Amino acid sequence: MSNDMIDVFRGEVEEQPKRLSELFAAYVTSPEIRAQMEALKKALPVELPVLWLGMGASFAASLAGATSLLMAGRASFVLEASEWLHYAGSVKQQTAAPILVTTSGVSAELVELTRKAGPSPLIVLCNQNDSPCWEAADIRFPILAGPERANATKTYVNSAAACIILASELTGREWQREVEQVAEGFARSLETVLRRRKEMEEFSRHAKNIEIIGRGPSLGGAIMGALCIRELTRMRIFAHSGGGFRHGPNLDVDGSHVAIIPALGRTADLGIRLAEECVKRGGSVILAVSGDLPKTSERMLCIALEQVPEPWEALISVLVAQALTLALAEERGTDYVRIQTTSE
C-alpha cells in the first residue's frame, strides 16, 4: 500500500481550483491562445459535424465539448480514438477535422492519428507541450493542468473546461462572463465533498456494486468518476447514462448496490427520480444536487453542490467520486501505479 500515492492524489485533487482558474485566465487573455481560436473557427466548416477523439479521461472530457455544441444546435459527437483509428477511414471526409484530446500527448492511438493526418489542419488539446501530439499539431490548445502523478483529476477538469470553451467559441457563446462563477462554485463544491468524504465512505462501505449515473454534461463526470475510483481502489465501478441505466442495470438494484447520481442541470429532476427509484428497490444512493436537497435518509445521502451555468456541471459532476476515491484510499490504502500506453 502506498501512503505516498495517497498524499499525491490528495494534493492533486486540492490543486484543481488553482489550475482551473489559471486556465480560465489564460484562455481569456493570452494572444497566442486567442489566435489559435480564430484558426480553429476557420478550420471547422459549419456545415460539417465536429468530431472529438480521446481515450480514457480525455474521452470523458470531450463529452463536455460535444454536448455543449449539441445544446447550441451544432452537430457534434465523440468517439474513442481507437475506434476512429481502426474503423473510420472511409468516412473522414464527412466530418470536420477532428479535435484530438490527449492529456499526455503520447497515447498510442492519438500519436498514430497524428501520423495519418490528411490535408486538414491537425487540432490538438494537450497537457504536454513537448509531446509528439503537440509537436505534430497545426492548431494547439494547452490544458495547463501542470504535472500529474496520480490518476486524472485536474487534467480531466481542465480538459473538460477547455472543451467547453472551444465549443463556446465555435457557437459564439459568451463564456467569459461565466468563468468567475464557475471557478468559485467549483472550489466551494470541492470543499464540501472533501469535508464529507469520510461520511460518503462509511455510507457506501457495504456496497458490492457501485455505479455512477450522469446525463448530458455530467455523463463525462460519471465516466471519469468511475475510472478514478477503479484505478485507485481496484473496485469494479461502472458508469452509465441515466437512460442507459434505466434500460437494464436498474433491474438488479438491491441492498448491496450504491448509486452515485449527480442530479445537475436541465435533467436534475430525472436524476432525483432515479435516485428515489433506486431507494425503493432497496439500494442506496449518494445524490449530488445544486438545488433544494431532498431529505437525507438511511439509504439516501444528499450532497449539496454549487449551481453553475450549463454546461459547466461537467466539471463539478466528478467531485463526489473524487472525494470518495480519496476516502477509500485513506481507509484501505492503494497500490496504484500510473500506466501510460505509448506509441513506439
Structural overview:
The protein is an alpha/beta fold and 344 residues long. The protein has 2 domains: 3-177, Rossmann fold; 181-331, Glucose-6-phosphate isomerase like protein, domain 1 (Rossmann fold). The chain contains 15 helices and 10 strands. The protein has helices at residues 3-14, 16-29, 31-43, 57-71, 81-87, 108-115, 132-136, 154-171, 179-195, 197-203, 217-233, 242-246, 268-280, 313-316, 319-332; strands at 50-54, 76-80, 99-102, 123-126, 139-142, 209-214, 237-241, 257-263, 284-289, 300-304. The strands form 2 sheets. The protein has a 5-stranded parallel beta sheet with strand order 2-1-3-4-5. It has a 5-stranded parallel beta sheet with strand order 7-6-8-9-10, sandwiched between helices. α6 links the parallel β3 and β4. α1 (3-14) packs antiparallel against α15, α4 runs parallel beside α8 (154-171) and α11 runs parallel beside α15. The two termini are 31 Å apart. The model has no long low-confidence stretch (mean pLDDT 93).
